[in-house]
Amino acid sequence: MDMCPRVMIPVSLESLPRRQRATVAAIDWDRLAVPEARRLRELGFDEGVRVEVLHRARLGSGPIACRIGRMTVALRRAVAGAIHVAPLAG
Amino acid sequence: MNPAPLVALVGNPNSGKSALFNALTGARQKVGNYPGVTVERHAGRTTFADGRPVELIDLPGAYSLEPSSPDERVTRDVITGTQAGERLPDALIVVVDAANLDNHLRFTLQLIALGLPVVVALNMIDLATRDGLTLDPAALERELGVPVVPTVAVRRRGIDELKAALSDAIRRGATVVPHSGHDDVATLQRRARAISVAATVSETPVRRWTHALDAVALHPVFGVLLLAAILFVMFQAVFAWAQAPMDAISAGFTWLGAAVTHAFPASIFRSLVVDGIIAGVGAVVVFLPQILILFFFILLLEASGYMVRAAFLMDRIMAAVGLSGRAFIPLLSSFACAVPGIMATRTIEDEKDRLTTILIAPLMTCSARLPVYTLIIGALIPNRQVLPFVGLQGLVMFALYVMGIVGAFVVALVLRRTVTKGASSGFMMEMPKYQWPRARDIVLGLWTRAVIFLKRAGTIIATTTVILWALLSFPQVPAGSHVSPVDYSIAGRIANNVIEPIVRPIGFNRDISLALLPAMAAREVAVAAIGTVYSVDNPDSDAGNRAILDNLRHRWSLATALAFLMWFVFAPQCISTIAITRRETNGWRWPAFMVGYLFALAYIAAGATYWVATASGL
């Protein structure tokens, strides 16, 4: 990480620090079950939208709550891991 | 004359659709079921300004026309005119949350494309304003091509305007040509976002107060403590507040029975009415206060938006046994009664997840087991302090609850690896904004619950108790015989010749064998049945009543009592639960499986308890 500290490295939503604003860079739809992928789309997840992690249920495992648009959505970590995000500076 | 036009309310979950339905129809609503499926049908009436009646139906919340749960399937089938027993609506009221337009408009676009007359209710506009959003309804109307009416359902604002727009829309007919091509979700979503931007005049960042509450409610430590505190208050209330009304109901039925006994000469018919119907229905209706108090809390937690937070906190524990956080709500309801609990599984999308939840719901200690536990514990467990503030009797009661929960988790774990095997179901839920619950909506919710429960008590339970009464009353003892009436009856013969040999190895005596059969109608009937056995065998009925406790102490060993309690933790002794499981799973296969596994567990648990207790000299 010390080679280029100024560049924001794309991470998954699962490992995005709390309160760090980001945009969805890509979603690994193939990693998700079909109904899971559909529900994720229906909840507004799409390339380019803003996301932010609000809460984590517990250290290590358990779902996360994130903000997408003006909604709060709870997700399991496995799903969050399939969502690649680009953190926004500031 | 043409029937009144049928208008369906459709929208995303959390769009305030039901509140709008309540505002439109008031108390003039009816809850039924769609044939063949177990989704509730909420219907009501309202009138246009000129007095014409309109029939309204409130469809389950959905995210799109591609259903992912039985509820959502009904929504799609009704608005496409393919739901059995429902005509195609003449118009749709599409309810959207004004503060969540970009998401809700996607479904709206899909609905408009169906080609039915549509009016959009831009609901909760007040909350959107408070949230820092300024919207332009006229712009939204232009973009969508259908009338848009701002509403605040809970304050009944915009209702008359909505009705006027609806009346116009029905008269004019559809303005949109049905759209044959299927746009994919992503395309629709992008269009929805574009429209949302066009209709938004100004926007400030989301207000933080929901987030501030969530900082506590979802906190890894404080959130869990808060949930535990809420559950404690809830159960405390269920048992403490319900006592007085339960006593009153029970006294009322006793009075009614006595009145009928005095008014009519002794006959088989009087016995049917008093011992069969009044006693049987009374034994179940007495649980109405507990069920209503529990539902009061559940409705409150749901309306305030907290329930999803509880599901969020519980998801990790549930995931460990292959379930999702969504299973928490049905399982919590099952502590009042497994029937509403099993009905609440309808919101679980994954079929196997839902089935597993249904199968373990009867293991939650329902309120009907309490009278049995109370009687046996009171009679046979010594009232002794084991720790400061902890009595042995209370400890045994607590252990029975824990046993049910642990049993349920172990069973879920096993089922998810065997009969309901499948990919672990996900947990993905929208977390609604916190809202102050409206008394009116809570009261309406309780009212519909009460009606459903009483209807059930009046039909299924009345019928089964009459059948059991008949089994216990026929054939009648010939005059001069010394055989007890119970032993002589069909039920007595079944108990003595079939049940007793089976349950003798696990320490059950004849009295228990006799109580097990009527307890199938409802568990708490076991108490009445044990009472009946002793008072029927005892000619002096007054002394018989007082002697139940003494009888128990003399005739039952502690080992037998413990085995009996263990039996009740697991045994599927309730016909209503079996009936609702059949309805919810559309067949006899799963209720048969449930009954089989529960009886096997009950037998093994009771047997093991008896053998261990006997071996250790109890």
List the helices and strands and how they pair.
The complex is a heterodimer of chains A (90) and B (618).
Chain A: E1 11-12, E2 22-27, H1 34-42, E3 50-56, E4 64-68, E5 71-75, H2 77-80, E6 83-87
Antiparallel strand pairs in A: 1-6, 2-3, 2-6, 3-4, 4-5
Chain B: E1 6-11, H1 17-25, E2 29-33, E3 40-47, E4 53-58, H2 70-79, E5 91-97, H3 101-112, E6 118-123, H4 125-130, E7 133-135, H5 137-144, E8 148-150, H6 159-172, H7 185-199, E9 200-203, H8 209-217, H9 222-240, H10 243-263, H11 268-285, H12 288-304, H13 306-320, H14 328-333, H15 338-343, H16 351-360, H17 370-380, E10 385-387, E11 390-391, H18 392-417, E12 429-431, H19 439-473, H20 485-488, H21 490-503, H22 510-516, H23 525-537, H24 541-546, H25 548-555, H26 558-570, H27 575-585, H28 589-615
Parallel strand pairs in B: 1-4, 1-5, 5-6, 6-8
Antiparallel strand pairs in B: 2-3, 3-4, 7-9, 10-11
Helix pairs in contact in B: 3-7, 5-7, 8-9, 9-12, 10-11, 11-19, 12-19, 16-18, 17-25, 17-26, 18-26, 21-22, 22-23, 26-28, 27-28
Walk me through what this model shows:
The complex is a heterodimer of chains A (90) and B (618). In chain A, 40% of the residues are buried. In chain A, strands 1-6-2-3-4-5 form a 6-stranded antiparallel beta sheet. Chain A has 90 residues and is an alpha+beta fold. Chain A starts with 10 loop residues before the first strand and ends with a strand. Chain A is built from 2 helices and 6 strands, in the order ββαβββαβ. Chain B has 618 residues and is α/β, with parallel strands linked by helices. Chain B is built from 28 helices and 12 strands. In chain B, strands 2-3-4-1-5-6-8 form a 7-stranded mixed beta sheet, sandwiched between helices. In chain B, a hairpin with a 6-residue loop joins strand 2 and strand 3. The longest helix of chain B is centred in the last third of the chain and has 35 residues. The mean pLDDT of chain B is 84. At the A-B interface, helix 1, strand 3 and strand 5 of A face helix 3, helix 7, helix 8, helix 13 and strand 12 of B.
